[in-house]
Design brief:
This protein is of the alpha+beta class. Helices cover 20% and strands 39% of the residues. It has a single domain, classed as STM4215-like.
Length: 153
């Protein structure tokens, strides 16, 4: 088995964190990529974006890796969009556990926690679509945030 890079483990940890958060709503499709094909809301799409490495210690070649994520939300109506956005904002303010997925994946395995992601700069943007520009009206939002890994929980 190939060992995953830390960034892959972080990506999977955020995906499973959000999937678990909405597990009591089986009609919400949580994906780890932007939707392809026909769009059938409600969908929450988790997309990793940029990585910035900032120096941390003088003489140490390792820096702090600051990660950027986008969460795209596609809803059937305004109330559904608001509910998903507000719930995500509330939960993303908490540290997100990062798990060692080299050990396996849920539900077969409960991997060991190897720290957590501390989120910062949470921003939600509600996107308005003009009905004349789309055959099918749906409601969108994007949540952007940065995070860095902390070795403690």
């Amino acid at each position: 088995m190939i060992n995953m890079e830390l960034e892959e483990k972080q990506d999977l940890s955020i995906y499973y964190y959000i999937k678990d958060l909405f597990s009591s709503y089986p009609f919400i499709n949580v994906t780890d990529e932007l939707p392809t094909g026909e769009l059938v809301p409600p969908i929450i799409a988790v997309e990793p974006e940029d990585i910035t490495i900032q120096p941390f210690e003088l003489g140490n070649y390792e820096g702090i890796r600051i990660r950027y994520w986008y969460i795209n939300i596609y809803a059937k109506n305004v109330a559904q969009r608001r509910n998903m956005v507000y719930r995500l904002l509330k939960e993303l303010e908490k540290p997100i556990p990062v798990y060692n997925y080299d050990e396996g994946f849920p539900p077969d395995v409960s991997p060991t926690q190897m720290g957590c992601l501390k989120t910062e700069n949470l921003q939600a943007t509600f996107i308005r679509l003009m009905p004349e520009l789309s055959d099918r009206l749906y409601y969108r939002a994007v949540i952007r945030f940065t995070a860095y890994q902390n070795e403690t929980t």
